[in-house]
Amino acid sequence: MSSAEEQVKILETNAILSSNAADQARSYTAITQDLESSNSSVATQIEKRAWFWTSNSYAWSLTTLVLLFLLFTALEYALIELNLPAMNPHDRDTIKFPRNLDDLRRLNAVLSIYMDKHFINVYVTFVMTYIYLQSFSIPGSMWLSILGGTLFDFWLILFTVSMCSAIGATFAYFISRSLGSVAVIRLMGERLKNWNEQLVQHKQHMFNYMIVLRISPLPPNWTVNLGSPHLGVPIGAFFWGTFIGVTPPSFIHVQAGAALDRLSSSDKLELLTPINVLCLLAVALVALIPVFLKLRYHLDIADKLINIISDQECDVFKNNVRYEDDKPVECP
Prior knowledge:
14 helices
């Protein structure tokens, strides 16, 4: 076959490939438009039913969440009343969620008295209360972690706090996905949209991304718990990423609780010391190492493919282009 015929063949092949690529692009555009139209139609139908009393309505979803919260609050109160040992009225008045260092000291002083004979009761109450706070994103879990450091063995309570955080967050995940989906999507629409743009870039390493999210203060934990099921975050990556991600900050809280007895009444409890902040940053960087390695691995493969394609194009160029004296030319 002559050089001219080979060039014609190459041009015909390129034309066919270009045509196929154009057809694929048109098909992709059509599919995307159909999906957007379908999603818009579904959203419109949900919005039309928003205030009607149906299982897909905003009113039903919000009411269900409120009733569920009230039910579990009543169960939590009953658990505290029934599970804790008999106390005198003064000690009983001290049993409440700690909100500051003074509350923490008083609660620790009371519970320490009952720990020897009623360890299981106090421990079970601690676990159920922690899960309750995490399930409904109620502030106060940090103070409970510090309290746990004063009452229990360090490593026992560190594992307990991390596991309770993961279990409570998973409950919030399922509540948001099943009962509160319409209310959550409506109330967090713009926030979910902005967060989804970030999640798209981390789909291949969601577990590591979830660890970093739990270590960092932003976005807030309640946003992660309620929004994750609506953005396609796998439950496995969500649970174990939460379990590992909350361990470093929990370590700081439990450690502070273990040192509470050594603090005088005038001392302040410092959590975010420079050393603690550096430790959190170090853990976050360690969690990102697999992500960087994976990205580097994919980039190396891409570079190799580009080099292979470039070598093939170069061979075609050499075979089809000649100088007037019939000497081969070098690739440009």
